[in-house]
């Protein structure tokens, strides 16, 4: 465990690398057509920037790699991982379900994608979810691992060791801020009004980050957050988002949607009180 001074020095190095490298990659993506442009493929190196920063900080500070927490985390780790795995499905069904049921969001199966032989869009959606939770999650965790190795594998414990006030909230706000340039100018999770999308994105992702903080600290493992992050990306972005249509859909659902934010805060309140969910040690 690092001392307060060591943790603060490590964080200074970590954030310097994150800011410099991320700014360069995001600038290149934004100035070359955004995420849908020719530089959109740089999003994978961008997601590994936190991992790179953590390695640089560890080497520069002679910190070693022992506290990366690749261990599973025992019973708490198992409970946290299962909760993390199912969370996006619960949030998606609640948020998008309300949107579809009320007519705020249009519902239709995507033109592209698998399971085209299933004509009924509702059945097709339900059949897609198990694929997303298995094969999709495994693939998505490859990119999510880069972020989690840095954010929760390094930043979160260092914020605690540095005695930063409200480290769970601070870690969440930093994680949100990292996404802001691509929301404003890169086409990520954005609706008609980019500034509103930023606000709604923060409202959605902050409770996600608070849960990730609890899972990481309670289990002593990064695997629950890797699973959570990977599953969230594929279930929300690659499944539910593709069935949501309509001019105003982005205001209601997606990572910057009102209904998604409400559903996520509801899930957070319920899960923070549930010992089984792995948010507290037994």
Structure explained in plain terms:
The protein is mostly helical and 282 residues long. It has one domain (4-277). 69% of the residues lie in helices and 1% in strands. It has ten helices and two strands. It has helices spanning 4-31, 43-47, 49-60, 74-102, 121-161, 167-185, 194-219, 223-238, 249-252, 258-272; strands spanning 106-107, 244-245. Strands 1-2 form a two-stranded antiparallel sheet. Helix 1 (4-31) packs antiparallel against helix 3 (49-60). The two termini are 22 Å apart. The model has no long low-confidence stretch (mean pLDDT 94).
Distance between the termini: 22 Å
- Count of distinct strands: 2
Helix run count: 10
Number of domains: 1
Alpha-beta classification? mainly alpha
The biggest beta sheet is recorded as: 2 strands, antiparallel
Quote the average pLDDT.
94
Overall shape: it is: globular
Percent of residues in beta strands: under 5%
Give a brief rundown of this model.
The chain has ten helices and two strands; from the N terminus they run ααααβααααβαα. With 282 residues, it is mainly α.
């Amino acid at each position: 465990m690092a001392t307060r001074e060591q943790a603060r020095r490590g964080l200074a190095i970590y954030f310097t690398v994150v800011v410099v490298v991320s700014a360069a990659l995001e600038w290149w993506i934004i100035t070359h057509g955004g995420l849908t442009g020719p530089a959109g493929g740089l999003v994978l190196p961008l997601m590994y920037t936190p991992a790179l920063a953590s390695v640089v900080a560890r080497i520069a500070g002679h910190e070693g790699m022992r506290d990366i927490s690749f261990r599973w985390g025992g019973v708490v780790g198992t409970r946290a991982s299962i909760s993390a795995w199912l969370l996006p499905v619960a949030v998606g069904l609640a948020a998008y379900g309300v949107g579809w049921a009320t007519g705020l969001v249009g519902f239709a199966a995507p033109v592209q994608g698998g399971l085209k032989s299933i004509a009924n869009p509702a059945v097709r959606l339900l059949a897609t979810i198990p694929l997303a939770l298995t094969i999709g999650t495994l693939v998505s965790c490859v990119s999510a691992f880069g972020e989690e190795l840095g954010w929760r594998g390094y930043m979160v414990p260092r914020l605690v060791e540095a005695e930063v006030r409200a480290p769970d909230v601070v870690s969440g706000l930093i994680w949100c801020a990292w996404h802001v340039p691509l929301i404003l100018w890169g086409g990520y999770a954005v609706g008609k009004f980019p500034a509103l999308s930023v606000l709604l994105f923060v409202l959605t992702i902050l409770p996600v980050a608070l849960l990730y903080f609890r899972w990481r600290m309670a289990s002593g493992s990064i695997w629950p957050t890797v699973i959570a992050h990977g599953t969230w990306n594929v279930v929300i972005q690659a499944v539910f988002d593709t069935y949501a249509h309509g001019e105003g859909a982005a205001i209601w659902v997606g990572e910057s949607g009102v209904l998604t934010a409400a559903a996520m805060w509801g899930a957070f309140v319920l899960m923070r009180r549930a010992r089984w969910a792995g948010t507290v040690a037994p």
